[in-house]
Write a structure and sequence with these properties.
Shape: elongated
Pfam families: ABC_tran (PF00005)
Number of helices: 9
Helix content: 40-55%
Strand order of the largest sheet: 1-2-3
Structural class: alpha/beta
CATH superfamily: P-loop containing nucleotide triphosphate hydrolases
Largest sheet: 3 strands, parallel
Order of helices and strands: HEHHHEHEHEEHHH
Oligomer: single chain
Number of domains: 1
CATH class: Alpha Beta
Organism: Dioscorea zingiberensis
Membrane topology: Multi-pass membrane protein
Subcellular location: Membrane
Keywords: Membrane, Transmembrane, Transmembrane helix, Transport
Length: 199
């Protein structure tokens, strides 16, 4: 697939957002929609209102996307949802999220992943999420895990299969620890053993 074709079917959300700080949430969406989509104003407005409701942003539609001493803006989790809204505006078949959880608390991170899971199921969209600190509740929402270390694929399957691989390598999951978190810790503490483990 050529680059132009790939851009049409994918949305990309970077770790650090590139939002316009003094535009409101609604103004941000309208500006991006106007730049990206060849639609009449009324169609753009309807699309933006629909997306604001879909992503639970209607209540902050008229707040600026920055929080400073002079004006009340939106929270970090809300900023991430605005970024996602921008990324899905053209209804991509695949969405790539780069380390969105790094600056969020557990509750906000879970809300965002849960929202993506819902959109995946309702729209038939593939979501690829890079993450370094997956909490237990977040891991439960994943369909597949791709575990990388030093450029090598150590696991690409469901979470339950990862647990079998760990056991086969003689690494037993402690109580109250999720398999992905344990695998990451095991790789960091004993990379040779984990890399050579076979399922």
């Amino acid at each position: 697939m050529d680059k132009a074709g790939f851009k049409k079917i994918t949305g990309y959300i970077a770790q650090k957002d590139k939002l316009f700080p003094f535009l409101t949430t609604r103004e941000t969406q309208m500006f991006i929609a106007w730049r990206r989509l060849a639609l009449a104003y009324q169609e753009l407005h309807s699309l933006v209102e629909h997306l604001l409701n879909d992503l639970g942003l209607a209540h902050i539609a008229d707040l600026p996307v920055i929080d400073d001493n002079k004006m009340r803006g939106i929270s970090g989790g809300e900023r991430q949802r605005v970024s996602i809204d921008v990324g899905v505006m053209h209804d991509p078949r695949m969405l790539i999220l780069e380390e969105l959880m790094s600056r969020l608390d557990n509750s906000s991170a879970l809300q965002i992943v849960d929202l993506q899971k819902t959109m995946t199921e309702s729209k038939g969209r593939t979501v690829i999420l890079s993450i370094h600190q997956p909490g237990f509740c977040i891991v439960k929402l994943f369909n597949f895990i791709l575990l990388l270390a030093d450029g090598t694929v150590l696991h690409h399957d469901i979470v339950d299969q990862l647990l079998h691989r760990l056991n086969a390598a003689g690494l037993h999951l402690p109580l109250h620890v999720n398999a992905v978190e344990f695998a990451i810790d095991s790789i960091q503490n004993n990379p040779i053993t984990t890399t050579r483990a076979k399922s």
